[in-house]
Amino acid sequence: MTKTFSNFIGGQWRAPSTGEYFENHNPADQRDLIGRFPASGVADVEAAVASAQRGFAVWKRTPAPARGDVLRRVGDLLASRKEELADIMTREMGKPLAETRGDVQEGIDTAYYAATEGRRLFGHTVPSELANKWAMSMRRPIGVAGLITPFNFPLAIPTWKAFPALLCGNAVILKPAEDVPHTATVLVEILLEAGIPPEVIQLVHGMGEVVGKAIVEHPQVPVISFTGSTETGRFVGETCGRMHKRLSLEMGGKNAQIVLDDADLDLALDGVLWGAFGTTGQRCTATSRLVLQNGIHDTFIDRLVQRAKALRLGDGRKAGTDVGPLVNAASRDKVERYITIGREQGATLTLGGERATGGDLDHGFFFQPTIFTGVTAGSRLDQEEIFGPVLSVIRVSSVDEAFAVNNGVRYGLSSSIYTRDVNVAFRALQDLDNGITYVNAPTIGAEAHMPFGGVKETGNGHREGGWEVYEFYSETKVGYVDYSGALQRAQIDNY
Ligand code: NAD
């Protein structure tokens, strides 16, 4: 029997007001139906907001260390259900179990970090410019936070948003991506089991154009955090701008790994294989471009092609699988379109370029690891996010040219450089226009206690992770206490 899942609204698991559901299938095997999930409507969002406001009234008065204690228990529960969650995630979005275990671990790390932040959440106390006057800042919760998340990190990204939002005292409405509703459901179960007051968390499943849009447009949701494509982010940003909402955007990327002539080539090979084909190229930080210096270009390509050919495609739940399927048919269609575009624009298809078929692969959205060489800077393969297992190789003759290629795109999430020259490494940290630069490591591998995010059209200046995200989810309030017993006028009486 197919399982039917619910929303969590108003402190209860509830059917959607629409009475409609969508099906969630395993992308590695379309015959495997995971369940039916609510295709919610605007009325469900209305109910969620009303409930979250009641939850907020209680939660904002709960001391931050006590909120942190709840999140510590969340971390413990995630740890105890790590294998189960990894399996659920791989089944609904395809990446291999080693990667989904890492996804859960990121959630655990984020929970424990949030727990400790409950005992910090620092304000500042500074000297006043006037005698007998106290000047300090403190952090206050804001209200209801609407969190809209993508499919590729089904647990980690919701936790990056929800845990700091909750720790700061906000109530949360989570709208997970349509491809990964099961993982989000278990996350909410865990939050409740850990002791979060029921109306503090709401889970509303459904389509982005309906549920996501209704959350973004709701006047009683003053905080929106969105991770997804730059195109959807533009709509979210326009609406939030008009409505004066606090907004964090994490969007697309076109990340490059640079390999210079003096690099450790074995290390650089391991890095690009993991960066380009891990998560089937569907990470926001995936290595989409490989920038090779002339001297090592041909040798590196030969070795890379041999290694990429050996990657084993298959069901991520089976031992030995290196690369899982794409998440859905639309993603596979998009990758196929870029194969045509690459050829039309004169790049050389050196490996792959087709659906991976045969045996069990016929039932899923598998695509061969693909390498285009001879890609020119400025072409569409160099410029546009593909979000699949497609690596575009660009040949350069100098460090300056490599940096220019890295920076010559509208995105700016992650970059990587392989070199043994310490001067060049530090120049890269200074001059590459990205939110994250790795030296002698691939473009992927963010750690939960460090700020995460990108520049240019990847983000809007905020960061997730680390200490910075707590500033996004709290409002700074300043308090002055004048204990002089007289009127003291700042900037006037003291100068
Ligand atoms: P997407 O933009 O299609 O969807 C993201 C979320 O937005 C989903 O929950 C979706 O339902 C919702 N949505 C869709 N239309 C909406 C609307 N009109 N209003 C409100 N919400 C709406 O992205 P995706 O395919 O799930 O994820 C892939 C994209 O996410 C890639 O571009 C990738 O680079 C990006 N991404 C970025 C980061 C980062 O941190 N920079 C991390 C992961 C993924």
Give me some keywords for this one.
seven-stranded mixed beta sheet, alpha/beta, binds nicotinamide-adenine-dinucleotide, Aldehyde Dehydrogenase, Chain A, domain 1, single chain, 15 helices, five-stranded parallel beta sheet
Characterization of the model:
The protein has a seven-stranded mixed sheet, sandwiched between helices. A five-stranded parallel sheet has the order 9-8-7-10-11, with helices on both faces. A three-stranded antiparallel sheet has the order 5-6-19, with no helix packed on it. Helix 4 (97-117) packs parallel to helix 5 (156-167). The mean pLDDT is 98. The protein folds into two domains: 7-251 and 459-478, Aldehyde Dehydrogenase, Chain A, domain 1 (3-Layer(aba) Sandwich); 255-439, 3-Layer(aba) Sandwich (Aldehyde Dehydrogenase, Chain A, domain 2), CATH 3.40.309.10. It is globular, with a radius of gyration of 24 Å. The longest helix is centred in the first third of the chain and has 21 residues, at 97-117. The chain has 495 residues and is α/β, with parallel strands linked by helices. It is built from 15 helices and 19 strands. 38% of the residues lie in helices and 20% in strands. Bound molecules: nicotinamide-adenine-dinucleotide.
